[in-house]
Write a structure and sequence with these properties.
Elements: H1 4-29, H2 43-56, H3 62-74
Helix pairs in contact: 1-3, 2-3
Keywords: Chaperone, Copper, Disulfide bond, Metal-binding, Mitochondrion
Protein name: Cytochrome c oxidase copper chaperone
Pfam families: COX17
Length: about 80
Amino acid sequence: MDGSPTQNTSALALPRLQLNRGSTAATSGSESKPKKKICCACPETKKLRDECIVEHGEEACAKWIEAHRICLRVEGFNV
């Protein structure tokens, strides 16, 4: 449990960073296909989502799942 507060603190900032990064990419990203494969996009939010699900179960990780979906949408994926 020593890593949980650190992960949560850094994880809270990730969705904001992704959204900020996506504000400029959203205009050009909506016109073109994603540049990455979905498995390779958003590694930060994917890792946090996966770790949360393994440790706490899917029901307890809705905010991390949604943060990863938002990141994928910013990257141009329709999820």
